[in-house]
Amino acid sequence: MAGKSSRRSRVKPARQRTRRPQAQPDVEFTEEERPELPGPPVPPYAVVHKLLSAGARDKARAVNAVRQEARGEAEEQRRRYTDVASGVAAALHELRVLLARDGERLRGAGFADHADTLAALDRRIAATLANAGVRFIDPVGERYLAVADHLSVKHRPAEGEDTGLVVSETLSPGVLLDDGELLRPAQVFLAAGAPHTAEDAPAAEAGPAPPRTEPPEGGGAAPHGPETEENDT
């Protein structure tokens, strides 16, 4: 019995045959399903060239946008720089007019230290403008033809040649940059050989002259309040 069971266990089961699926026929596309582009077929290198050209155009546009932005920022910084230069030049001119008009009066009134401080401030502002590449144009006393390119003449004598004219007064200073750009010309009066003041110019151009106060005799300061009499004791 044991021998029969062992022979039965060694009997291999019969293989089952499987049928292979039949190959499907190739799908055919009609002209409506797969339209062809008009014209001759595009070779592969032309497609690659087109892609590279599109990438180069996009890169060039990005670079131009960055350049345009940088150019705008540079122009804005230059505008601020020129505005500051013009404002400082105008303030320096007003300070010099003040010193020329009232400097001696301040010293005579006992304010010599204040006058010296204003003079030192004048020199410091002028040095700052020079270091920043800004030329301050205040051509009082110079020949007209020597500085004519940097001037805007507000009054000149009716008669006389240009060779005999000098700058007699500066109404507002000129500002010239180191690169040669004239931000604004100096507005001046001209005279024939001798300086003249705004009172000598026509009233329509010069305007009314500011009132002047003469210092009291003895060079002292004018009193600021009512005078009081002191009794001798």
Structural class: alpha+beta
Task: Output the radius of gyration.
Answer: 47 Å
How would a textbook summarize the main sheet? 3 strands, antiparallel
Terminal residue distance:
167 Å
Specify the oligomeric state: single chain
* Portion in helices: 40-55%
Poorly predicted spans: 195-233
Succession of helices and strands: HHHEHEEEEEH
Q: Which shape, going by the Cα principal axes?
A: elongated
Protein name: Molecular chaperone GrpE (Heat shock protein)
What does this entry look like structurally?
The protein is α+β, with helices and mostly antiparallel strands and about 230 residues long. Among the domains are: about 45-130; about 135-210. The protein has 5 helices and 6 strands. The protein has a 3-stranded antiparallel beta sheet. The longest helix is centred in the N-terminal third of the chain and has 65 residues, at about 45-110. The termini are far apart. Residues about 195-233 have low confidence and may be disordered. This is Molecular chaperone GrpE (Heat shock protein).
